Amino acid sequence: LQVQRGSQARVAELCALRGLFSAPLGLSSLQAAHVKALSRVLFLTPRLPAPLLRHRLRSHVLEIRQLDRALARLGPSELSDEELRAACYLRGLNSTHLSAGECRAWLERWLGLSCRLQ
């Protein structure tokens, strides 16, 4: 309900919901239309058959997770504004209308969640 009002959930709240995304909402269970929509959100071409899109999404997610771990060690504060916006873009956030501070805060929350997930 808070998210529908524009509020951002805390990392602990998101982790509490993790189990909901395993079976019915897991990548292998999503319908082709949902896989295509998710591909668009992550700026991947959606014009491929669903099995190939799933493979590309898995590869993309694994790459982001590896980058997240490296970035968590480095720290988002070490990124230039351009690198910061690129990191947000890669993770599906359009940072065009956000300040560098807002991007950094979003990326820190993202890393907090990403590094806690298995």
Automatic annotation (TrEMBL):
GO molecular function: ribosome binding
One biological process term in Gene Ontology: intracellular monoatomic cation homeostasis
Coiled-coil annotated residue ranges, if any: none
Pfam families the UniProt entry points to: LETM1_RBD (PF07766)
Signal peptide residues on this chain, from the entry's feature table: none
Family matches, as PROSITE patterns: LETM1_RBD (PS51758)
Keywords: Membrane, Mitochondrion, Mitochondrion inner membrane, Transmembrane, Transmembrane helix
Phosphoprotein listed as a keyword: no
Localization of this protein: Mitochondrion inner membrane
Annotated Letm1 RBD domain residues: 1-118
The keyword Ribonucleoprotein belongs to this UniProt entry's keyword annotation: no
InterPro entries linked to this entry: LETM1-like_RBD, LETM1/MDM38-like
One term under GO cellular component: mitochondrial inner membrane
Record membrane topology: Single-pass membrane protein
UniProt protein name: LTMD1 protein
Gene (UniProt): Letmd1
